[in-house]
Amino acid sequence: MESASVAVGHAEEHQPHPPEANQSSRIDRQTLGILLFIVSEVMLFGAFFASYFFLRVVANNGPWPPHPFELPVGVAGMNTAILISSSFTMHWSLVSIQKNNRRAMKMGLATTFLLGLTFLFIQINEYVHIGFSARDDAFGSIFYGLTGLHGAHVTVGLILLGIANVRAWRGHYGPEAKDHLGVEIPGIYWHFVDVMWIIVFTTVYVL
User: Fold this and answer.
1) CA distance 56 to 60
2) Phi/psi class of residue 18: alpha, beta or left (left: φ > 0; alpha: ψ in -120 to 50)?
3) Cα angle vertex 52, ends 49, 56, to 5°?
4) Residue 38 near residue 192 (C-beta atoms within 8 A)
5) What are the Cα distances from residue 111, in Å, to 78, 101, 117, 185?
6) Per-residue pLDDT tens over the stretch 92-119
């Protein structure tokens, strides 16, 4: 009996162990995580766009937006320019820290945050003065659904940018790739927010 237990013990010692997890040299875990998250968010926006086009193409027989809804295209266009500008300042911030220019990085992050905050303020002000609510017909519901969903993503982006700004002023970032992920990852998310707004603006306000 004793020899049998010894044999079992030796067998367990010689059993092959699973290999240790390796990190790919092509992409780090944080970047992969934000990219996968963005993929899931694209699907979420896709569901809202599907509802929008169903209401516009299938369920609607008259003009779009239906009477008496009117959208402030000029204000939204100005807001779009503000948000697009924030993508350039975000890119400037990342390029600056890659060149070890900390002052320019801080200016880029702060400017991006202020532009994003301005965009969100204008959107809230638009809601206050637009003249209809989410309870007014299907158009009101889908309008607030799409623009409000994007506004929620802008809010998340501003939180990430706020954290990045605080860390930048504390000297947390450096020119090495692994040392400025805290700038690069919020930047990826912010560019996604900008691209989604261009699609929302074009679909809802222009077409």
Assistant:
1) 5
2) beta
3) 140
4) yes
5) 17, 16, 10, 17
6) 999 999 999 999 999 999 999 999 999 9
